[in-house]
Amino acid sequence: MSLRWQWCTSLWVQDFPVQAYEQLRQQVEHATPFNRLSWLRGAERALQPQQLHILLGWQGERLVLCLPLIVGRESRAGLSLRVLRHLGHPLSDRLALLVAEPAHGAMLEALREICRRLPHDVLQLHELVDAERLLRPWRRGSWYSHQALSCRAPEHLIVDSDREEAKGTLRYELRRAKKRCAEIDARVIRVTPLAEDIDAVLEALREVEQASWKGADGLGIFSGQPRQQWMHSALRGLAAEGCLRVVMLEHQGRCISYRLGLLERGRLYDYNIAFLADYANLGSGRLLLDEWIRWGLDEGWQWVDASRVSLSRSSHQLHERMSGVVEHQRWSFYSWRPRGLLAGVAERCWQRLKPHLNAWRERRQNATAQGVRPCNKP
Fold first, then answer.
1. Nearest alpha carbon to residue 98 among 163, 52, 30
2. CATH architecture of 159-301
3. pLDDT for residue 41
4. pLDDT at 371
5. Alpha carbon of 293 to those of 75, 182, 241: distances in Å?
6. What is the DSSP letter of 305?
């Protein structure tokens, strides 16, 4: 299928097809809050010095494809590479490619259009779900491609039995958290921020995060001016659309712990958590996660979702009550340009070497644990 292609350089311009974009987003089954225009416009505000290029595919008057791509430079193994990514990296937790069914057959044509407009060495897309069939033509159109598992996010199906008290160790942990909170008269509250009060809510959340280990390490969603600008713009927009939810633990009128969630199509994405170190022994994380589930029971949500976790050593508390997992994939496409060829060769070599290196590390760790001097060769 041949589509009519159009390029834009901003989501904020007056002639950007906002209504057509929203209709497209509604059609894509796996679309998430991170595909919403409010979120992506917030991401664009924080872009500098990266550049934004938005590919639009039209079938007549209907928008059937939208790919907002950022252009940047990265150094890998001594090579300076021109890299394309989806707008929102690295703070978007799960993304769908906004490609409607009529455009599925035009994906190779879309890649050629991207290569013509944006010559690049690597095109890398993070946190995609169920995109293999859609991206198969890009694998054929690239010198080399690589698919990697980046995340197994736990999810919990909300059912009537969640109204009952949890069982086992979780019941003990929740009882202890409730007891400790009661001792200092700390209470859990639900907040659905609206456009008129969102700034006060965000300031309270920012203060908690900045005083937490995330703020100290510069890893929070409010760390640094670009991220603050992104979050304030994006979360204001999502609040105006009714997508934002917060559960807080409040002590003497002050927020001491919170979980921030984004609600989309009956699924609550548990996006961020922070707490003050002085109150770490309260166990507020589990208590607030339990409140998500009870809120979902009251409002008819279907899922509570961890949104994104570390692939290894994840400590997300939803693991304790998960119904399943959602796998995120990272796709990398290496172009036929000289640096793309070199980067692809390096990646292929690394993928062949990595299993042997991991096996050697495991043997070394086992030998060290047993008090045996390990061999120095992989």
1. 30
2. 3-Layer(aba) Sandwich (3.40)
3. 96
4. 65
5. 43, 20, 22
6. E
- The pLDDT tens digits of the residues spanning 249-261 come to 999 999 999 999 9
Say yes or no: domain 4-152+328-358 is CATH 3.90.960.10: no
Place of tokens 């834009």: 8
Query: For residue 115, is pLDDT > 90?
Result: yes
Asked whether the beta carbons of 122 and 331 are under 8 A apart, the reply is: no
H or E segment to which residue 288 belongs: helix 284-299
Write down the domain spans for the chain.
4-152+328-358, 159-301
For residue 1, the model assigns a pLDDT of: 59
Decide if 4-152+328-358 and 159-301 have a common fold: yes
Three-class secondary structure of residue 278 per DSSP? helix
pLDDT for 377: 40
Helix, strand, coil share (%) of the chain residues, nearest 5: 45, 30, 30
How many Å apart are CA 348 and CA 240, to the nearest integer?
Answer: 46
CA-CA distance, 273 to 259, in Å (whole number)? 4
Q: What CA dihedral angle connects 203, 209, 274 and 324, to 10 degrees? A: 90
Residue closest to 265 by CA, chosen among 29, 21, 24, 15:
29
- Among candidate residues 245, 247, 253, 256, the one with its CA nearest the CA of residue 180: 256
C-alpha–C-alpha distance, residues 32 and 274, integer Å:
23
Query: Which whole-number Å values give the CA distances from 254 to 189, 258, 373, in the listed order?
Result: 11, 11, 54
Percent of the chain with pLDDT over 90: 80
Q: Quick one: pLDDT band at residue 372, thresholds 50, 70, 90?
A: low
Is 80 exceeded by the pLDDT of residue 133?
yes
